[in-house]
Amino acid sequence: xxxxxxxMNAWREILARIFTDFEVQDNVSPAxxxxxxxxxxxKLDKYFPDAGIAIRFTGxxxxxxxxxxxxxxxxxxxxxxxxxxxxRMNGVQLAVINPNEDPIKQLDALIxxxxxxxxxxxxxxxxxxxxxRWMPVLSEARSTAGELRARINKxxxxxxxxxxxxxxxxxxxxxxxxxxxxxxxxxxxxxSAGNVDYQTGLRVHHSYFGDGVITExxxxxxxxxxxxxxxxxxxxxxxxxLVQDKMSVVVx
Length: 252
Prior knowledge:
Distance between the termini: 31 Å
Helix content: 40-55%
Order of helices and strands: HEEEEEHEHHHEEEEHE
Shape: globular
Number of helices: 6
Number of strands: 11
């Protein structure tokens, strides 16, 4: 059986190939994705606004994470149902992928999501120019997903390993490109801990809570507050002046 690290890299490569022509937003919390029960934003692991498709990974546990209690599992289920309903209400097709389950079944579900998105676009009120531009792209994405499904079905273990390796190579290329771009820019003084530029939508890393995304900024001066939705679905609010030595902006 595949390790979680390997299968997740394989899925990242699968999605990169299928949605290669679409803008992607990672770990995003759109303004419309607010849980009415808690008034807190929920998270999408990947969001392709032009395709009208969002991705949510399930069944993953952080290293050392304990098994959920019955109450925690119920809360998770309720959040998942709310996320799905909010996506539907806002014209977004949500694909839920469990990397620990059969990749063929997961790809079948994703292909169905692409088909629903095509129908929604064709029947929706987006402009004729939008439809003319994105319908062929969605068709190509669906075709790519079908080709990947066939190749994985033929030799699952080898193909998953190859996809994971391809993602590693892709990441290496992205890092190299970023480094090349940075080397051409004018050198500036590093930002001090007291001047971290927090902004809504940025990915951050907290020394205790881990990775998350900034969902809201409030206040001014010494009373400025930053609200963060962490990847474990924890929502926390911090005083900017007190958190900057503990929470850094994630680059790349």
